[in-house]
Amino acid sequence: MSSILNADDIKKALDAFAVADSFDHKRFFEIVGLKSKSSDDVKKVFTVLDADNSGFIEEEELKFVLKGFAKDGRDLTDKETKAFLKAADKDGDGKIGIDEFAALVKE
């Protein structure tokens, strides 16, 4: 992940949401610098977060999304995970595809 994003920005973003139930995907993507990245870089980040390489980020993977940015990232709470999924899952299939993820990042 640090080959795509600045390590200091990753740390800042993780620190900003260290408290349970404080996660805000829009602010996170902004702080971490993903919002200003190219669509290719956004796709690379998606690939890292898609742990099982299914082409989707499922709810279980979403819970560990902060760990995808840094090993010491915390797990999202169930409430945060469901809110994140709801914000991104535009077609209602219960998972986030690459296009849904890219749209969410650029919001």
Automatic annotation (TrEMBL):
Family affiliation: Belongs to the parvalbumin family.
Presence of the UniProt keyword Transmembrane helix in the record: no
Classification via Gene3D superfamilies: EF-hand (1.10.238.10)
Pfam families named in the record: EF-hand_7
Function: In muscle, parvalbumin is thought to be involved in relaxation after contraction. It binds two calcium ions.
Protein name in the entry: Parvalbumin
InterPro entries, per the entry: EF-hand-dom_pair (IPR011992), EF_Hand_1_Ca_BS (IPR018247), EF_hand_dom (IPR002048), Parvalbumin (IPR008080)
Keywords per UniProt: Calcium, Metal-binding, Repeat
Every EF-hand domain range: 37-72, 76-107
Secretion signal, residue range per the UniProt entry: none
